[in-house]
Specification:
Radius of gyration: 34 Å
Strand order of the largest sheet: 7-6-11-10-9-8
Largest sheet: 6 strands, antiparallel
Shape: flat
Amino acid sequence: MRWLPQISALFAVFAIATGIFWGSFGYFQSEEQSKAEGRLSLYRSSLIAELQRFSHLTHILARDPYVVEISAGGDTGFLNNRFKDFVAATGLDSIYLMNADGVTIAASNAGTPTSFVGQVYSFRPYFLSAMKGEQGHFYGIGATTGQPGYFLADAVKDEDGTILGVLAIKIVLSKVQERWRDAGEKILLTNRSGVVLLASEPDWRFRVLDPLTDKQKERIRLSRQFPGQDLEPLNWQQHLHPEPSRATIDGMSSLYLFSSDLPHDWSLHYFASDDRAVARSMLVTGFGIMIAAAILILFQLQRTRRIGAALKRSEEEEALLRQANERLAVEISERRTAEQALQKTQDELERASRLAALGRLAALVTHELGQPIAAMRNYVAAAEISGTSNLSSTLSTRIGGLVDRMEDITRQLKFFARTDEENFEDVDLRDAMQISLGLVEPNLKESGVLVHFSPPVEPILVRGSRFRLEQTMTNLLRNAIDACEEVDDPTMTIAMGRTRHTVWFEIIDNGHGLGGTSLKELQEPFVTTRESGRGMGLGLAISAGIVNDHDGQMSAWDRPEGGAVFRVELHALETAWPIKDDRAVGALQEHPSDEVGEDRDA
């Protein structure tokens, strides 16, 4: 029985260690899960960008006068060289032209052993789609070269709209999977049938996640999509248990994430190792065991001390006083040790606070720079496709404006620690709103949002920072566009006016609304109503800070008919124009259909 306390203590230590391990493992695993979600979102975005980089090229080339002329029966020699020059300039694998029967009559690789000229591709799905007047998309192994690639095709038509043939391009995506492999990732891309198209591991390519049905096999055979491939099942298994989801592939268990929000019903599957979470959990558990052992030793010491004190109760008062002094010295030493530990903890908390502030500042700068850069990329892409001098000049002006905004943002960061008062000027909210609408114009075109805005006749003047007010308007406009993503007829209304002492503007949308979240919660950094990977939740936090810096206020509420209203009120600049109405709202005006809301081909 005398060993019972020691055995109980060992069991207690084991139970504590087990609890610490699984508790810390769950926490660290959730961190790895969050990091993996971020990386998956990055790989998804880069893959979509790679697929869409040349999506408009076939449409443009199919309307080239030389292509139309040769499709109608012209000499192909000049066109072969023209295609060859295009391939060299763009980095494509090949460009080729087929007649209405699917026979290749011109190609960038004409005269090579693997020339497409004379080959018949009428069985390919991209050819069939193009002959119907649609853009063809297809990924498969080349029937002539034996090399896999991504094919895009568009119909070549004469002036009467008669289809003369089909122009197609082939894009090799091998560099995508090379980047995955070089980064040490385990990731694969599958089509709607579950066939692995790209993978970081070469052995996974052209395998299937689940056995194919007879109908799927027949469709693949007719299109000759994967000739010479057995399409055997991949050695993997998804574990059906609560989050985080896990899967075993090639005998290795990993965190498993996937994204099906890709073109052509493709899916991206990502396998992330959680070895780091296990190692960190072991370290925390070891530290916990050391603390438990220290507590046990301290308990034993205190117990021994109490026994010794009980045996010496009969000693003289002087001995008792001496023992009391010794205990007091020990207590003073322990108090000093505790104060030193507290001071160390406070220093660590201050350092962690500074690091958190630095991280938040970096996130803010990244968020704000990402918007102008994205717009600049859209304008550059439009300039490269159009190739006209007038349009290039206009885009050059816009790009210069965006670069100026980026310099303003970095200049604001450079003087972040200064206490000097910011230079304010007279700002007309009408002009600021027009500039902000110009910045989000690519987003409006892409999402098809119809904008109603008619500025008031009289100026809407405030005293403030023009750049920061435009930044607030841009953030609110983008939030409204994002809220209308899944609406059939997305609409946004902009109103502005002034009262006797204030000016105001409102941005009204018919999107998903605030989702039961208050404006105070939405203004907190990193809080967002969008799904994971679609925004960092910083736009409203930044806008709220700007409005507060201007001694204004922001409010928001859900509309009964659906959507939300965001209203910003600022102090009015005293002007001479009379105020006929205490709430002068701008009238509504639609954007022309050829500028906003235009249907774009994915």
